[in-house]
Amino acid sequence: MSLTGTAFLYTLIVLSVVAVALPLALWSRVRGPRALRATARLLMVLFAQSTAVALVFVLVNNQNNLYDSWADLLGTGDHVQQAADLGADGTGGIALERLPKVTQHFRRAGGPGMEGVRVTQLKGRVSGVNAEVYVWLPPQYDTPAYRHHKFPVVELLSGYPGSAKAWFGSLHAVNQLQPLMRDGKVAPFILVAPRMNLLAGVDTGCANITGTVNADTWLSLDVPKMVNDNFRAQSGPAGWAVAGYSAGGHCATKLAVAHPDRYRAAVSMSGYNDPVAERNSLAAETLALRRANNPYVLLRDARTPPAIALYQSGQPGDGYEAATGLEKIAKAPTTVHVVCIPKSAGGHNMALWRPQVVPAFTWLTEEMGLLHGRAGATPHAPSSGGSKPAELASGTASRAAAVGKR
To answer: pTM higher than 0.90 for the full model?
Structure first.
């Protein structure tokens, strides 16, 4: 029985009702020695408590898309087939353009918010990762007027723990963005959500760690190649962006800073810079890994400032300081747009991030030169000049200018 399935949820509801009814009906009717009566009543209480806890857990899990399966929950899942030494650029010296075309079979994805979403099981030829990838195509994709267009792509990254379905199920990305895409207020992006939790009980930190996992290569090479081979997608970096929340926000920023040849922009909601902020992150195990996967360090030490745009939102004490840190060290053509979320908006959860989806995608549309939903438009060059952090009080955000000084 699926952990997130309707059958399991209804079963728990029935068991919870039974668990409450049993003591009411049998408490005074239990017969036998005192010890036996006490044991029977204790078991009824424990049954009632366990079913209630299980039901609450499933409701919370379904609402926040934390665990997709029993393997994820129990820590028995492993989606890494091999983790070879792929070198500094994560390619292992492989000429990607010479790899055979990746042809995938897609099936319809199930679950709340997954209307129109398809899923495939991808075996990453470079990374050695074998995991699912969810894809949603914008409303223009199958219309005659767009039959020759290639569409921009946003790769959606979940937090830890988190399901690749979370952007669709918990953040309601399709429900929020689809009408705006139809009206030309948001560009018709292809949305791609790959599995982030690749190893049991740990966060990969989107890092390449020889012998353990090549998560960076999975996200920045294998998944984009599959998308470009199967759909009319723009190639990177001009047509690709990456977005995430929490640990996924950290990864989004890190991937864009580390690979400006693969991504044009990144959105981070409540992210962080130093991987040590996630206590279960593999990228936090050594100082060398922390530095190699810290976007602040990568941006500060870059010989040439990358031509990328970063959208960084967070609350004081939860992402805002990391965002302003990046803003202070960024040099043109790098741009950093900082959004301060007031504490009154809520905590580190889906309710905080859900209202940020539309402002973030509106910013992506403008920043990537895709105004009025013109798929295939050419990204504009980053502007110059300083800017102050913007405030987000009503769910909207303005475009920030490039940061041109320390």
So the answer is: no
